[in-house]
Each structure stands twice: as C-alpha cells, then as structure tokens.
Amino acid sequence: MGLVLQWVFLGLIAQSLIVAGEFFEPFNVSYDGRAVVIGGERRMLVSGGIHYPRATAEMWPDLISKSKEGGVDVIETYVFWNVHEPVKGQYDFEGRYDIVKFVKLVGSSGLYLFLRIGPYVCAEWNFGGFPVWLRDIPGIEFRTDNKPFKEEMQRFVKKIVDLMLEESLFAWQGGPIILLQIENEYGNIESSFGRGGKEYMRWAAKMAVGLGAGVPWVMCKQVDAPEYIIDTCNGYYCDGFKPNSNKKPIVWTENWDGWYADWGDRVPHRPTEDIAFAVARFFQRGGSLFNYYMYFGGTNFGRTAGGPNIITSYDYDAPIDEYGLLRQPKWGHLKDLHAAIKLCEPVLVAVHSPTYIKLGPKQEAHVYRDDSKCSAFLANIDEHRSATVNFLNQAYNLPPWSVIILPDCRNIAFNTAKIGAQTSIKTTGLGVSSGIYDLSSLKLMVPYESEYISKAWSFVKEPIGVWSDNNFTHLGILEHLNVTKDKSDYLWYTTRIHISEEDISFWKETQVAPVISIDSMRDAVCIFVNGQFQASAKGNWKKVVQPVELIQGQNDITLLSETVGLQNYGAFLEKDGAGFRGEIKITGFKNGNLDLTKAMWTYQVGLKGEALKYFSINEKVCTEWNPLPSDAVPTRFSWYKTTFDVPSGIDPVSLDFSSMEKGQAWVNGHHIGRYWILNAPQDGCRTCDYRGTYNSDKCVTDCGKPTQSWYHVPRSWLRPSGNQLVIFEESDKLPHKISIESHFTETVCAKVSENHAPPLHAWSYASNGTVSLNPTAPEMHLSCETGSKISSIEFASYGTPQGSCQSFSRGDCHAPNSFSVVSQACIGKQSCFVSVSNSVFGDPCHRVVKTLSVELKCSSSSSATRASLTNSLSQSA
C-alpha cells in the first residue's frame, strides 16, 4: 500500500474512533505530482504565516479575518516547544500559547491550517524553539542520531499530534489541519553530523508518519527526504524548485516577503512588485502551494527573541504589520494577485505541466490548456527593459521584471509591476511606497500628538553584584547558561583582588593604566570596579580590552554578563552558550599580568527586581519605591515605575523608548520585551529599484537612526486609565520623555489609469470552468482601517496628474469634477470605489490615457481623544 493511501486509511480508521470536528465536513488530504489534493480535488493554495505567540489571543480573530480577506486559503504556524514546556513535563497552553484555540479560530473562519511542529523552528526565536532544559539531559546531542534527543523530540511531537487528535482538528476529523511539518531546514546542516545526520532525518520522517495524524508531512529544504515526505523550498524565489520525486507537488514553505533586523542594523524592506513577481513566477512554472513568511510577523514579547541580538519587533515588512494594520500597497496588491491566480485555478489543477513558449531573449510564456479552458502567464525577466511581445496573435507590453496573468489566455487580469492598490501612510512608522524610490529620503512620520507618558515616576536602585543569599562561589569561570538556565538575561560574576602600594606607584610613574582583558564574550557585558561602572561592550564572541580604575587595597571586580536572545540557527546548538570564553586577566602590573580565569568567583543569577517581581501589579510586592524628582541625577541600573492612561478607541498603541538606552519593560505585569536604542550605520540607504533579484541588504531604511524606537503594547493588556509601566534601565537615562503613541492609517493614496486591468469581479465562470471577462472600466478602491472613516479628500484629479503620494499635483489635463465625484463616493465611509473612466468624469483630453490620482485622510478611532487633547493644549498655551 502506498503511503498516500496509508494516510487515507489511517484517517478512515481514526474517523471511526474520534468524533468529527465542527468546522468542515470531514475530508481526506493527499497529493500527487501536481498539487495537494483536498477532498479528492487538486487545489492551488495560498498560505499566510501567523505565529500565535507573537500576538495576543484577542488579536487572532482580526488577523485571521484580514488574512482571509487578502485571499489566503491556509494559515501556517510553527509550534514553539519552549513556551509549551518551559519545565520538563509541565505544559502551558494558556493565553498566547493556546494553540488549540488558535487552530479552532482558523477552522471557524473557513481556512485550512499548516502546522509546522518541528520541533526545532529557528524562526528567530529564542534557542530555535528548544527548551533550555533540554541541553542538560546527560549525553544529549541535538538533531542527530542520538537516543536522548530522539526520545525527547518524539515525546513532544506526539504530545502535539495527540492534542490535535483529541480536539478533532485534523481534516479527516472535520478540522482545519491539512499539512504537518517535521524538522525544519535540516538539509542545511545535515552534513555536519555525518552518517548520524542521515540516520536521524530518516528516523524523524518515519517517526512522524507513524503518529497517525492522517495528513501529509513535509520537510523543508530537505532534498533527500524519503519518498513519503514532501520536500519543499524556502527562499525569496522558488519558481525553479523541483521536489525529489515527480510524484510530489511543488510546495514553497517560506516565501520571505521581508526580513528580520538585529539591534543596530538597518531595517529591511522587500518591494511589493518583487514579491508579486516571485509568486506569479512560482505558479507560472508549476507551483501549487506557497506560504508567506510572514503574512503577519508580530512581536517578540518577553524574552522570546532569538539571535542573538534580534529586535523585539518581528514586523518582517509583512502584508499585515506588527500592530495588525494592513501594510498598503503590499496587502492590496497581493490580494489582487491571489484573486487572479484563483481565476486560473480550474485549468491549473487540470494540467500537469504547462506549455513553454519563448517570446524573446528574456521573455517567455507558460500556457495551461485543457479542453476549452486556457490560462497563461507571460513573463519579462529582464531587469532593465520593457518588451512588447506577441502571444496568440496579440501584442502585450511587459514591464521589466514582471509577469502578467491572462486567465482566458487573452485578457490581462493582473500585472505584477502595475500597482492599483492604495498606499497607506500611518501616523507612526514608516510609509514605504512601491516601485523605484529613494529610501534615504524616507523619514519616520511625526507622531500624532505625542505626549510624555507621565511626570510622576518612582524608582528603585538595582544592587551591583551579589544581592541575595542564593549566590554561590566557584573556582574559575562558569559558562553562563549552565548557571542561569536562561531564567534571566543577567548573570553577575564577582571576584576580589588586592592592589599593593607598589602597583599604584608603578602606574603613576609609567602613566599606564591597568587594563581588564576578556578573550571572548557575548552578547553584552558591563564592567564594574568597587560598584562603580567602568565600561560596557557588545558583540558575538568579541574580545574586550578596557582600562579600569583600581585603588590600593581590596578591589571588587564585577562583570555582568548579559544574553540578548539565544542562538536560534545552526548545528550543535546544545554546545552554544553565552558569557565568557578564554582568559580573563588584568594587565599592566609591574610584575606581570593578573590571571582571573582561575580565581574564586561569586555568582549571582538575575536581578533583585526580577526575583522580587517589581513589575507585578501587586502593590505589596515592593515597598522600596521612592519618588523620582524631575531634576534627579541619572544613575545606572535602576527600576522606574509610573501609571498612565491610553487614548480611547481601538487604534493599536506603542511606547516610544527613543529617550532610553537598554533594558526591559512591563505593562500591567505583561513583559512587552527587551528594548535597546542602537543606531544603524549611516550608509546603505539608497535608491531602491524593485527590478532584479532581491536580498535583505537591497532595500533598507533607518540609516543613522535607531533600529527600533516603538514597542507594541497590545490593547488587551491595557485599561483606559491607571496602567502600570515598570522598566529596568541599564544606562544613566531617565524615563521622563517616554511617550505613548497610537498607530492608525491617516493618509491613503491611490493612482489608477484607465488602461489598468479591469476589476477582478468583472471576471465570471462558465459551467464548464472557463472564465470570461465582462467589459468593465478599471476601479479605484479606497479604504480606512476598521473603526475609521474617510474624513476629507486632500487631492483628486482625473487626467494627467503628476507626483506621488503626499506630493500629487495637477497636470495639463484635469477633469473639473474630479474632487466632487470622489468626495460624493467616499466621504464619511469606511471604504469606497470609483470607476476610472470618461463615463464618470467626462473626457478632459481626447486621445490621451487618463489617470485618477487621489489622496484622502482617515479619521482615527482615537481622534476624539486627540481633538480634546489638542484643545486643552491650545487653551493652556
């Protein structure tokens, strides 16, 4: 019996044992060489990545709804072992970690789910998703033919599969889960383990399938995957990918529609046109299922960010931004692309492979034809030049680096290089337009009525070094993670040395200061002598050489080792650590160096404020808070607390920590994450052209600016007033200038020409599955975020308008009724559309292709609050 049939058989057996789910009529999932087969039918599927712990449970319904509206069929997520089993045998499936609730919400929306169990996930997540206790199991080696690791891995994977079975969440039970993944990008490191790697991969595949989930399993980037596992592609482009068997479909598990950022890095962006080009090429050349990594990236709350040194934001330049707002035009343009692909689906699933036609030196067509149905994709892979090609006796102009989609092999439904979707600019954040743009000129939008969060602060000093009785002393330098078990970012190392009068005299005579030298450290270290701060350093196994001030007699040397996210990628993760390596010594003595490596060191894990939970909303937790004067002298390593109110409405909010330096923050007891105000290099932000192969350094912003200034605070964690903010600040910055800001789409622009493709609703299906186009003029669709309305039209011109969003101007040709037509259609509405044609505006200039350009303003759900605030400020002034 073939393995695909075995899945069906397993599903039928289990179906008789477990009550069916509540979301779908039970259906089987299999695959062939063309596509994933759902309920006996091949499907062309669009998937969007949403990681449930990177949002709150209250955000999930809206994120899933916006994904579905954007044309997504499947939601993809990893399963994060370290949040579900923080202590061996103790499980957490509550709140943001309630994976069952998340899967059920996906199913109730009518979408499918792709569950990537791993359990190694990478994902720029702390320790790649592994619980740190795993490294302490005797004899363990991760991700190889190692019995202790395989036992733990199998136990957790089975735990998740059994949980989904118990909740009837697999497709054959009536649930949404159609695909599972075991391991993750293992092919990248398999060779590091020699024969053990190959044996482990085969074991993992066999183990997974043997759990009886009843749906297909995939392995991404695993070219040697067994015949019963679908091997898949990850990358910016996967149109040339072929699985290792012609019996498997072409699946793209990670289409990187953006990239992550490290502290002190520029922020990457991927142009909308290039993503659309990559997706269209994938389906053009035989692809069947792809997944946006990410469709919503979200936030690395708490200490979940990996790296090391990955920022708290995991926005990823995704179609839905970190705050849950639509990123336009990316979301809208891809929505249109998905609709165009769906128009082609009847013939795409009927034809195993397309007919290839060369149209020019760098131009080609792929034609899918079956009986009366015909769909075609025409591509120009030239990075610089447009081309006019002849296809089926009709001429088509192809912009550079573009694909046009012809659902009926004649009429254009979509052009990857021509964006008709609106561009949205928010009051905070970065509005990146499409096409060719100068990233160096883009600026952060000015916050809308930014107010300092509070004038009344309290503070507590954090002790330097030993602060409790649970410290211990050990001869020599211990590895950081072996001591902390990742319960805290912080580990104090303290030793005592004696400085003689002779040493002091020698330094005065030679004018050479003593220097502490650390051979290798990561991720950050702070150096103290006698409780006084000397210096700090950051780096990935970096050498540190720092002059220090010593006094005659006893001197306490204290090193604070800090992790900023554990390694999440690579082989031998269990051997990766933190803290210090090599020798630690003080040089510059008359009689040689002082080796501290084998000295007696006292170790203290974490901060006093962490242990006593200064961030708790229980007022009895800490009675040591003192009022912070407005003219306070700044000191390092302090805790600060205040209360604050938030704007009314539903706009997402964030805290602006640009006035601070490095630390962590809690709101109403919720850990919103680490913050670190590090500036990116001054260079590298140049004009970005979407044309040509993309990489993460191609289109970057924020040169010379902090990588991240705003830190998301989910609305569900807030009350209208009296919210508690507690921060731990490592530098000598004071908190008085921290502000709270709401995020909403304020400005919306769009530009559509009368020769743009007709709206996708103008296409219709015939009974035989063919599609036809009803002659309809192009349409401009405009919308504000939920809870907002179109409040004003700032610019409207039908004719030959010039410029771009926020800098439109009239051209020589202009229809006088442009403003009134758009105003009548849109003012006071959440969304509207306008037909782009002479029949609506008249013809202001004959034999000229006309364009409609519009800029409008949206009201915010918090606008009343802002108006009130503005009035009070003006009155007080």
Polypeptide structure, described:
The protein is of the alpha+beta class and 877 residues long. It is built from 14 helices and 48 strands. The strands form twelve sheets. Strands 4-5-6-7-8-9-10-12 form an eight-stranded parallel beta barrel, surrounded by four helices. Strands 24, 25, 26, 27, 28, 29, 30 and 31 form an eight-stranded antiparallel β-sheet that branches. It has a six-stranded antiparallel β-sheet with strand order 32-23-33-40-35-36, with no helix packed on it. α7 runs parallel beside α8.
Q: Considering DSSP H and I runs of 4 or more, what fraction of the residues is helical?
A: 10-25%
Largest sheet: 8 strands, parallel, barrel
Strand order of the largest sheet: 4-5-6-7-8-9-10-12
Question: How large is the count of helical segments?
Answer: 14
Instruction: Quote the average pLDDT.
Output: 92
Task: Return the CATH class of the largest domain.
Answer: Alpha Beta
Question: What does the overall shape look like?
Answer: globular
Helix and strand composition category: alpha+beta
CATH H-level superfamily of the largest domain: Glycosidases
Measured between the Cα atoms of the first and last residue, the distance is 82 Å
Beta-strand content: 25-35%
**Low-pLDDT runs:** 1-20, 429-449, 864-877
Remind me, CATH topology of the largest domain? TIM Barrel
Q: How large is the radius of gyration? A: 30 Å
Total individual domains: 4
Write down how many β-strands occur, each being a DSSP E stretch of 2 or more residues.
48
